[in-house]
């Protein structure tokens, strides 16, 4: 072991406590002063700054040296346990094919003197069954090793049979118990056609969603349409002539009316928008989509947010900053209301009894099978009680179901349409829904539905023809209900 003089020669003058720590490191790792000095220099380079030789830095240096020593010991232990690759002795000169992959397979292929490193790597990695420790973390194990711990076979799934579930039909909670629950089916129930109508305020064909596929020009057109619609509403509310509306980004020495959308130049989400960061963005038709900074000093008070459509009386003498004089109030939109005659018609439709709705959400089968016993019992109850409307939310064919994941279900090849999961839906789901004849059925897709085209919101409706949903209403999203 090196002496204190050797340490002083390499490190210079050292405090007593530092000298003691360095001597301890020499004894623990059985190295000399020169090797320890090399480790100290390596540590200084790694820390990236001028480090003084004091007790605090030497303590962290000891911790770092211990970690490096443990890493080296683990690497040596693994290399000692790994079996050595044995090369087959060759006598001929290596003039064979690339990587010697045909070596010895054909008489015309010359033998090499010794296998190359590349060949040994290919022989070991490409043509051997992976070792157990390499495949233990995989969901599906190699055949000689057996399935890993994360692999579950259908027979190994432990699930309570649906017919043996505890407390079937138990009422968990009742809201507004003072309201009398009618006996279903209603006496003389005529069916939902004369009592319920499904009305959509949108054209469903225009909402065939394509997530992640929207073009920027399409989004810009929607934003421009909102500004133009707001211009019409402001003009009608305040009786403003067309010539008073101007481009907010142009030079405006006189007070005019401008309409646009509030935006901000603050990009970081951590920061809040303030008065100095607000801009007005014009539409592409009136202002070519330009932006101009707002000067709100003349307003006594205001409340804006990014994306808000606004109308101002303002000036822009320099074309650089819009001096807002006043904010034009938006038109008043009256709440939805029904005429007395319409209400009387609704009461007449519901003369047989109150409006009754069933709501259920999937999945509709247990994890150990695809028999859909839950759906079958639910449909039995619907057929028996005859409610006016039935809302069924997915998932129906659940992508998280173990048997769906593995594809472990039979396929009827006699009626095979080329779509495996869609055929399963028709066999298990559509066949049950067709039993409901006196109730309106509405299906709402889930992001876990294997037969849905979209795996994220917003979602399009289920495909009626492909799934055989001829007598079932379909809606796109839960928000539409």
TrEMBL record:
The record's annotation in InterPro entries points to: DNA_pol_a/d/e_bsu, DNA_pol_alpha_bsu, OB_DPOA2
GO molecular-function term, one example from the UniProt record: DNA binding
What residue spans carry the region label Disordered? 139-163
Asked if the record carries the keyword Nucleotide-binding, the reply is: no
A Gene Ontology biological process annotation?
DNA replication initiation
Gene3D superfamilies in UniProt: 3.60.21.60
Q: Which domain of life is it from?
A: Eukaryota
Q: Which subcellular locations apply to this protein?
A: Nucleus
Q: Which key words tag this protein in UniProt?
A: DNA replication, DNA-directed DNA polymerase, Nucleotidyltransferase, Nucleus, Transferase
GO CC aspect terms:
alpha DNA polymerase:primase complex
Is Transferase set as a keyword in this record? yes
DNA polymerase alpha/delta/epsilon subunit B domain: which residues?
Answer: 357-469
The residues covered by the DNA polymerase alpha subunit B OB domain are: 220-328
Q: Which family is this protein grouped under? A: Belongs to the DNA polymerase alpha subunit B family.
Q: What is this protein called?
A: DNA polymerase alpha subunit B
Q: Lineage of the source organism? A: Eukaryota, Fungi, Dikarya, Ascomycota, Pezizomycotina
């Amino acid at each position: 072991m090196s002496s204190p003089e050797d340490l002083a020669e390499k490190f210079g003058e050292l405090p007593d406590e530092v000298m003691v720590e360095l001597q301890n490191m020499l004894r623990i790792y059985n190295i000399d002063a020169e090797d320890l000095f090399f480790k100290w220099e390596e540590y200084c380079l790694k820390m990236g700054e001028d480090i003084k030789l004091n007790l605090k830095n030497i303590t962290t240096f000891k911790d770092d040296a211990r970690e490096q020593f443990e890493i080296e010991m683990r690497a040596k232990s693994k290399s000692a346990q790994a079996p050595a690759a044995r090369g087959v002795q060759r006598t001929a000169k290596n003039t064979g094919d690339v990587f010697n992959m045909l070596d010895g397979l054909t008489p015309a292929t010359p033998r090499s003197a010794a296998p190359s490193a590349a060949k040994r790597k290919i022989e070991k990695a490409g043509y051997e069954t992976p070792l157990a420790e390499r495949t233990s973390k995989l969901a599906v194990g190699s055949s000689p090793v057996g399935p890993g711990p994360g692999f579950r076979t259908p027979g190994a799934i432990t699930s309570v049979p649906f017919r043996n579930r505890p407390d079937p039909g138990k009422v968990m909670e009742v809201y507004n118990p003072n309201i009398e629950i009618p006996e279903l089916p209603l006496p003389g129930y005529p069916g939902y056609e004369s009592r319920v109508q499904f009305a959509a305020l949108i054209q469903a064909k225009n909402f065939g969603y394509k997530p992640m596929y929207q073009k920027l020009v399409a989004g810009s057109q929607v934003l421009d349409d909102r500004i133009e619609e707001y211009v019409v509403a402001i003009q009608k509310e305040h009786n403003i002539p067309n010539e008073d509306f101007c481009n907010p980004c142009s030079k405006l020495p006189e007070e005019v009316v401008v309409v646009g959308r509030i935006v901000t130049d603050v990009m970081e989400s951590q920061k809040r928008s303030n008065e100095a960061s607000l801009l007005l963005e014009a539409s592409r038709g009136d202002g070519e989509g330009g932006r101009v900074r707002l000067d709100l000093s003349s307003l006594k008070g205001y409340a804006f947010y990014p994306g808000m459509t606004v109308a101002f009386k303002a000036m822009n003498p320099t074309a650089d900053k819009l001096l807002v004089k006043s904010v034009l109030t938006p038109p008043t939109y009256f709440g939805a209301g029904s005429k007395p005659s319409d209400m009387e018609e609704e009461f007449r439709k519901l003369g047989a009894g109150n409006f009754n709705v069933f709501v259920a959400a999937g999945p509709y089968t247990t994890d150990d099978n695809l028999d859909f016993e839950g759906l079958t019992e639910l449909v039995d109850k619907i057929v028996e009680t005859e409610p006016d409307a039935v809302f069924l939310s997915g998932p129906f064919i659940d992508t998280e179901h173990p048997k769906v994941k593995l594809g472990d279900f039979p396929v009827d090849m006699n009626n095979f349409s080329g779509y495996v999961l869609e055929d399963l839906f028709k066999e298990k789901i559509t066949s049950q829904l067709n039993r409901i004849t006196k109730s309106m059925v509405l299906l709402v897709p889930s992001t876990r539905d294997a037969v849905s085209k979209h795996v994220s919101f917003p979602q399009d409706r289920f495909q009626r023809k492909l799934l055989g949903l001829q007598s079932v209403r379909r809606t796109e999203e839960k928000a539409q209900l």
